[in-house]
Design a protein that fits this description.
Number of domains: 1
Distance between the termini: 64 Å
Order of helices and strands: HEEEEEEEEE
Oligomer: single chain
Number of strands: 9
CATH architecture: Sandwich
Largest sheet: 4 strands, antiparallel
Helix content: 10-25%
């Protein structure tokens, strides 16, 4: 087997093993009692102009800034603002939230809760 052929096989294997991510974030925002929260503002950290609001079921869908995977910020009056990372590594394993085919759940706490 030629070195050139081996190189192409290696590249193909590495690319096919990569985790595919969506070009958008999606999720559901709930309160501490698992009740969907409507009108929660969701935006990419450092990119406030790219934002959306949750619907009456707490669902949101937000297009990602091209070539970036950023943390998401969740803001609703009467609730504690929360910033959640969308990707993190644990050893050699990379984990994703909001950008895979599943719908990640976020729970916001009321400002007066502990």
């Amino acid at each position: 087997m030629s070195v050139k052929y081996s190189f192409y096989v290696l590249i193909f294997v590495l690319l096919s093993c990569g985790q595919k991510t969506n070009d958008f974030y999606q999720g559901v925002v709930l309160d501490e009692n698992n009740i969907p929260l409507e009108n929660v503002t969701v935006f990419e950290e450092y990119v406030e102009e790219n934002s959306t609001k949750t619907d009456n079921k707490g669902y949101f869908k937000l297009n990602r800034t091209p070539n970036w995977i950023l943390s998401l910020v969740f803001v609703k009056e009467g609730y504690k603002t929360d910033t959640i990372p969308t990707v993190w590594a644990h050893g050699e394993q990379v984990n994703y939230q909001f950008i895979k085919n599943d719908t990640t759940q976020v729970r916001l706490k009321k400002e007066n809760s502990n």
